[in-house]
């Protein structure tokens, strides 16, 4: 049966080539691979039906940069992956500590950016974060810096100029409930050390490189992770899977 011209145009339209990084991957009991890709055109969820047994399996791995051909059927809303070509991989991310931080930042990007939301900058920042976590010696510091940079890009920023509770200027104490800053009158915890305070106030506006080059001492980082975890939990819903990956978030005093 010959297809009309318009119908053929429609079918062509439904097949698209996209390039992105696998930030989430799940295999269903039926052997399908469900993936979420972060692409310069936004987040894309897609399924490779029967993918586990086929040639797509090895290319559709977590943190791989892949080029995919997807087909969007007329009735099912989940795009179907027809082909996948590996465009780049960072083998050092397989090291356990680096893997943990890559996983954390991937879940974070997934929570921050919505499907279909266009953000070339988010893609570039995320790709840079993975490269940094792969190559830099201090993977934890890269993950912390890039988490705050991604927050800044999403436009969700902790308040640092005024106390989150009463509005007094220049707060320097942790805010254990909201992950922001409190003044001396409102706070129950001792103030942040100067390095942490400088990071919280300046991380988003400084360049990635400037941040990476002045790391906060390791013993101050648990408090920074806790603040990030609290802030994101309060400001963004549905971050359960991300929260479980944040180091120290559960252990510390809240
Ligand atoms: Zn206050």
UniProtKB/TrEMBL annotation:
Pfam families attached to this UniProt entry: RecO_C (PF02565), RecO_N (PF11967)
Q: Which UniProt keywords apply?
A: DNA damage, DNA recombination, DNA repair
| Matches recorded under InterPro entries | ARFGAP/RecO (IPR037278), DNA_rep/recomb_RecO_N (IPR022572), NA-bd_OB-fold (IPR012340), RecO (IPR003717), RecO_C (IPR042242)
Domain (DNA replication/recombination mediator RecO N-terminal) ranges: 15-86
Has the keyword DNA repair been applied to this entry?
Answer: yes
Family annotation (NCBIfam families): reco
Family named by the database record: Belongs to the RecO family.
What function does this protein fulfil?
Involved in DNA repair and RecF pathway recombination.
From the Swiss-Prot or TrEMBL record, give the protein name: DNA repair protein RecO
Organism, scientific name: Deinococcus xinjiangensis
């Amino acid at each position: 049966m010959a297809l009309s011209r318009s119908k053929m145009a429609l079918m062509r339209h439904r097949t698209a080539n996209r390039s992105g990084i696998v930030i989430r991957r799940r295999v269903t009991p039926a052997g399908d691979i469900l993936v979420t890709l972060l692409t310069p055109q936004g987040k894309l969820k897609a399924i490779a039906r029967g993918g586990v047994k086929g040639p797509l399996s090895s290319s559709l791995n977590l943190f791989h940069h892949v080029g995919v051909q997807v087909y969007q059927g007329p009735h099912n809303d989940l795009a179907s992956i027809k082909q996948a070509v590996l465009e780049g991989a960072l083998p050092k991310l397989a090291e356990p500590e680096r893997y943990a931080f890559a996983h954390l930042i991937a879940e974070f990007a997934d929570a921050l950016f919505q499907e279909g939301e266009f953000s070339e900058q988010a893609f570039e920042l995320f790709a840079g974060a993975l490269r940094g976590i792969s190559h830099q010696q201090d993977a934890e510091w890269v993950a912390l810096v890039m988490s705050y940079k991604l927050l800044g890009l999403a436009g969700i920023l902790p308040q640092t100029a005024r106390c989150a509770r009463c509005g007094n200027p220049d707060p320097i104490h942790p805010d254990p409930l909201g992950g922001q800053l409190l003044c001396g009158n409102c706070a129950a915890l001792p103030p942040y050390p100067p390095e942490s305070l400088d990071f919280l106030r300046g991380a988003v506006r400084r360049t990635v490189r400037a941040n990476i080059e002045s790391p906060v001492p390791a013993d101050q980082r648990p408090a920074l992770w806790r603040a990030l975890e609290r802030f994101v939990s309060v400001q963004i819903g549905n971050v359960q899977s991300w929260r479980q990956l944040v180091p120290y978030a559960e252990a510390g005093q809240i």
